[in-house]
Protein: Protein FAR1-RELATED SEQUENCE
Organism: Stylosanthes scabra
Amino acid sequence: MHLRCVPGKYLKRNGINSILFVRKESIPTIVIYTLTKFGGGAREYKVKFDRSMGKFYCDCLFWNRLGIPCTHMFYVMKQEDVPKIPDRMVLKRWGKNIKS
Ligand SMILES: [Zn+2]
């Protein structure tokens, strides 16, 4: 699924515009972004992006619970110029829903 297929509405509702960048750490093949939310208190989330595996992991566990990439992941995908959401990150059901 291409990132541009993700409806702006979805991202907006989940507050991608309110994501604040805190810091970025790079270790070979893995990038770790620390993000927080504007107006959302001091809670920080760490998003790990494994370049070699194309895998994402986020502290908020949104993906683990719902099977939909969270806005933190979307943020990192944008920053890292990831053109596609890895297939395994998207539930078939969700992919269908947003196709129009
Ligand atoms: Zn997250």
In short: DSSP finds four helices and four strands in the chain. The chain has a mean pLDDT of 82. The CA atoms of residues 55 and 88 lie 9 Å apart.
